Amino acid sequence: MFMDASIFLFLMFGFLLLWNTPIAVGLAMASLLTMFLNDAPMAVFPLTMYSATAKFALLAIPFFILAGVVMEAAGVSSRLIKFANVCVGHTTGGLAIVAIVTCCFFAAISGSGPATVAALGSILIPAMVKAGYDKGFSSALMANAGAIGIIIPPSIAFVVYGVIAEVSIGKLFMAGVVPGLVVGAALGVVSYIVSKKRGYGGSGKKATAAEIWAAFKDAAWGLMTPVIILGGIYGGVFTPTEAAGVAAVYGLFVGFFVYKELTLGKLKKLLIDASVGSAVVMLIVSSASLFAWLITTEGAAQMASAAMLAFTKSSWVILLIINILVLIAGCFLDAISIFYILLPIFLPIIKMLNVDPVLFGVMLTVNVAIGQITPPVGVNLYVACNIADLSLTDISKAIMPFLIASTIALLLITYIPALSLWLPKVLGM
């Protein structure tokens, strides 16, 4: 044998990351070289990658991506911003609060952090800067609030976790609602404090009931999307995968026949964008699944699990250690890669400690959401930087108060299980 396969696997992957290799390519190349040098059956390579994506539940991913792209192009984002603005725009730091509220709304449509930042940031960041907000503050807020996109359902991260951990995706969706709002509230507190200190005022004029009602009616078709998705799943009308298809069709209906901002010419580009986004996700899924297969078959996952349990049997301490490890991993890897690489290690541990897998899934998803705003590979940061024409250094400084607030929210969600499990329990799930 060339060397211990698991050691070589991680060393090679780390080297490829340092060489700026795309994560999906790095995972696949490290796995392929490890298999070749350790005389593993090479037929496993294509079979594992194919079987990882040939799962019915994963069909939800391209449909949710399509639904988010279509809803944004249909004009839903601008209407949600208008509705949030008439509701809370008059308060101190009004536009900052509007950004958070709108991200919570749009998160229930897109299921993606970068998509939420791109859809709303292109409107809100220039508007905040024009209103006198600091560009770094505005961009950092949008990057962090956009991360709520993978916590509040529908969430691509929940779909992937549910497939790997064999947990009900519908239950995960319901469990993510309250934690997503907790993160939003934490960001709201920081935004209010900073706005108060720096003198970021609101619009100054409180909207009338008639203006709020008019904005609500205009945004109602967008607001109905999460109602249809979650209501259909909870009511047993369709599965999460079928709900994704319904959401995509509903988005097309709203775009063509209600808001009438979609055309056949635009649809072609939207289908291409959604296809590219789906292909990227599926490539990461297939590459990461091969990496995870090697971790498991070579015994690395079992050894790491045993070492952690030998260190302590306290669930509180182990959950803290897991959070720290995932926060570090989030600086370099995307959510899907983290799930496939680390879940083979973590799942046996949480089963032995009787930690609810739904709670654990929510905890990990909130954690990897924070990873979307931690440099050097925080994808939301790059999207916000591109919109605001900022350097990564500038936005990284401005992100710190929001990063602290999100971490506090993560600890609350980790150690107060009711925040995640209350809603599924009330709904009888």
Would you kindly provide a written description of the structure presented here, covering whatever features stand out?
The protein folds into two domains: 1-42; 43-426, no CATH class. Helix 2 (23-37) packs parallel to helix 13 and helix 10 runs antiparallel to helix 20 (400-415). It has helices at residues 5-18, 23-37, 44-53, 60-73, 76-88, 94-110, 113-130, 135-146, 156-165, 169-198, 209-234, 240-258, 264-297, 300-311, 315-330, 335-352, 357-371, 379-388, 392-398, 400-415, 418-426. The chain has 429 residues and is mostly helical.
Question: Which whole number gives the mean pLDDT?
Answer: 86
Shape: globular
- What is the count of helical runs? 21
The largest sheet, given as strand count, sense and whether it forms a barrel, is:
none
Structural class label: mainly alpha
Number of domains: 2
Please state the CA-atom Rg, rounded to the nearest Å: 22 Å
Report how far the terminal alpha carbons are from each other.
Answer: 49 Å
User: Fraction of residues in helices?
Assistant: over 70%
Low-pLDDT segments, ≥5 res: none
Briefly say what this structure is.
The protein is mainly α and 429 residues long. It has helices spanning 5-18, 23-37, 44-53, 60-73, 76-88, 94-110, 113-130, 135-146, 156-165, 169-198, 209-234, 240-258, 264-297, 300-311, 315-330, 335-352, 357-371, 379-388, 392-398, 400-415, 418-426.
